[in-house]
Design brief:
Blueprint (H helix, E strand, L loop, with lengths): L13 E5 L8 H16 L3 E4 L5 H12 L4 E6 L3 H4 L7 E5 L2 H10 L3 E4 L4 H15 L6 E5 L6 H12 L12 E3 L2 H5 L11
Parallel strand pairs: 1-2, 1-5, 2-3, 3-4, 5-6, 6-7
Helix pairs in contact: 1-2
């Protein structure tokens, strides 16, 4: 059983980040992406991400590089043209498809942070939550709820739980944070927006 009383983030060496390949229309999305990349670099973690240079993905990678992080990207062949692979990162793997990408990113990380994003980001989030609930993995999952982006989704999790479709409290699968700093701060493993 997982809980929000997870051990500290001091044992994390690599962080996978799932987020949008677009910047979004609220400047706070970009601000949080850059802040997260900076924190990953300052804390000496390696960034594992989708390998693109566009949108929030590129912002996280650039900030992490700027602050000394090793950056490992994984991009599927089909997205090379869409996401424009980042040429300045430490290492880039080009893989056959999205499934291989997610598995490689998961295998290379100790924890996962999910930022705002589109369909792909939601796909990645739900797969992580499913793996967590099935006890396929025990890696920490942090949801960055920038500007309340995920409020409606969190309300839907409550609805699924209330309707009897979840086997356990969804709060045991991941923690929710309003800013990047709370993820890696002294209270970084505690759910910052939910009781």
């Amino acid at each position: 059983m997982y809980s929000n009383e997870m051990p500290g983030t001091n044992n994390i060496k690599s962080v996978a980040v799932f987020c949008g390949s677009r910047p979004g229309n609220d400047p706070l999305y970009a601000e949080h992406a850059v802040a997260l990349g900076r924190l990953i670099g300052e804390r000496g973690h390696m960034l594992v991400y989708g390998g693109g240079r566009a949108g929030m993905m590129g912002m996280v990678a650039d900030a992490a590089l700027e602050h000394g992080a090793r950056v490992y990207g994984v991009i599927p062949e089909v997205l090379m043209a869409w996401e424009q692979q980042h040429e300045g990162i430490t290492e880039l793997s080009v893989v056959a498809d999205m499934h291989v990408r997610k598995k490689m990113m998961y295998d290379r990380c100790d924890a996962v942070v999910v930022l705002p994003g589109g369909n792909g980001t939601l796909d990645e989030l739900f797969e992580l939550i499913t793996w967590n609930s099935l006890k396929i993995h025990s890696k920490k999952v942090f949801l960055l709820n920038t500007a309340g982006f995920y409020d409606h989704l969190l309300a839907h999790f409550d609805r699924m739980m209330g309707a009897g479709f979840l086997y356990s409290d969804w709060r045991n699968a991941f923690s929710v944070h309003d800013s990047p700093e709370t993820i890696f701060g002294k209270d970084g493993d505690k759910n910052q927006t939910r009781p």
